[in-house]
Design a protein that fits this description.
Blueprint (H helix, E strand, L loop, with lengths): L5 E2 L19 E6 L7 E6 L15 E3 L6 H20 L1 E3 L2 H11 L6 H7 L6 H8 L7 H11 L9 H10 L3 E5 L5 E5 L2 H9 L9 H7 L8 H8 L7 H17 L4 H14 L4 H22 L8 H6 L6 H27 L1
Parallel strand pairs: 5-6
Antiparallel strand pairs: 1-4, 2-3, 3-4, 6-7
Helix pairs in contact: 5-9, 6-7, 10-11, 12-14
Length: 347
């Protein structure tokens, strides 16, 4: 599906008929590589406009002929680049924590955040930029799911990531950062941010054919992208651990007991405890259940306030009991999950 792609050495100039197009949207053309090795070079052309007459060719990809036909490989690479661009350029709201960091570090008012983003970010050192934008552009599992669905069982080797990143730099890729007033601010992303994002997408991960078939048995098609992201997680690279996920998916599908939330909890559990194999995990579950039962018993001993006036005297909404209730509920939910998991994995 996805052919290997590396930076090509030579690329002929792009046709001029595209020069009427929008200046910030690349157009791609496929030409024979001048090295004569039979490969094709995928060359993005950024059309010129009145303000920027000297826009030239940007870094491009060399796509060798392989088992798949060259046009299919070209389409796949373009789709990957388009998806990366679309995800990076979707609106992203700045959290209160990020805003506070900017205000405290650079001594600006909250009202000036938008101006700072547009006018000052480009002047910062890379490490400063990474400190600001890392919470915004560190992919979560849901972000990885977009690319897990796109790649399927394929992968992009790490040595090919720099070419992807340079392509995104040359695009250029413009983030839309949304401040608390609802305004969107366009910021050109630099290499340090693009590298952070691409390197954490698990593009080099693979899914075995047998496991891939199990994922397709999930009753809800809407769940499958996230399940594929779960299956591409680093923790399953160990074959014995991967059998845990395979056993869960098989038994849950057979018994009609599949839950996406349980699959996510299983990932969290295995990442946290790192059991050697299925037997090791099953041996650990009773110990965790006992510890949780004791914590729930202790936590259930607190009494709620029967008077709002008395509750106000104890801090109202800041009352520690509310936080305790949230933690207690989480422990009860984990207990219920472990009970379901134990029954499924024990057979």
């Amino acid at each position: 599906m996805f052919g290997s792609f590396l930076a090509a050495t030579h690329c002929v100039d792009s046709p001029g008929e595209n020069s009427v197009d929008s200046y910030h949207e690349p157009r791609f053309h496929v030409y024979p590589n001048r090295t004569g090795n039979g490969d094709v070079a995928l060359c993005p052309y950024f059309p010129k406009n009145d303000e920027n007459r000297d826009i030239g060719l940007r870094p491009h990809f060399q796509i060798p002929f392989g088992l798949a036909s060259p046009p299919a490989d070209t389409d796949d690479v373009l789709k990957l680049l388009e998806t990366l661009g679309a995800e990076l350029e979707r609106p992203r709201e700045l959290s209160a924590r990020v805003v506070s960091y900017i205000v405290d570090t650079y001594g600006i008012d909250h009202d000036a955040i938008g101006s700072f983003l547009v006018d000052e970010l480009s002047r910062l050192e890379e490490y400063e930029l990474d400190l600001i934008l890392s919470p915004v552009f560190t992919p979560k599992l849901a972000d990885q799911a977009v690319f897990a669905e796109l790649l399927g069982g394929d992968s992009i080797p790490r040595e090919q990531w720099p070419a992807l990143i340079q392509q995104l730099v040359a695009r250029p890729t413009r983030a839309r950062l949304v401040t608390s007033d609802g305004r969107s601010h366009s910021v050109t992303l630099r290499e340090v941010t693009l590298e952070r994002y691409v390197h954490r997408l698990r593009l080099d991960a693979t899914i075995s054919e047998s496991l891939f078939k199990l994922l397709d048995r999930a009753p809800s098609a809407a769940d499958r992208p996230l399940l594929k992201a779960v299956a591409r997680s680093t923790v399953w690279e160990n074959g014995a651990r991967r059998n845990i996920l395979a056993q869960y998916l098989t038994t849950a599908a057979d018994r009609g007991s599949y839950r996406l939330a349980d699959a996510l909890e299983l990932l969290n559990l295995v990442e946290r405890d790192k059991p050697a194999d299925l037997a090791d995990l099953l041996a650990r579950i009773p110990q965790r259940q006992q510890a949780l039962q004791e914590q729930v018993k202790i936590g259930s001993g607190s009494k709620p306030f029967f008077s709002e006036q008395v509750q106000a005297l104890h801090g109202g909404g800041r009352d520690q009991r509310q936080q305790d209730d949230i933690r207690l509920s989480a422990k009860q939910n984990e207990l219920a999950f472990l009970d379901r998991l134990q029954k499924l994995l024990a057979g």
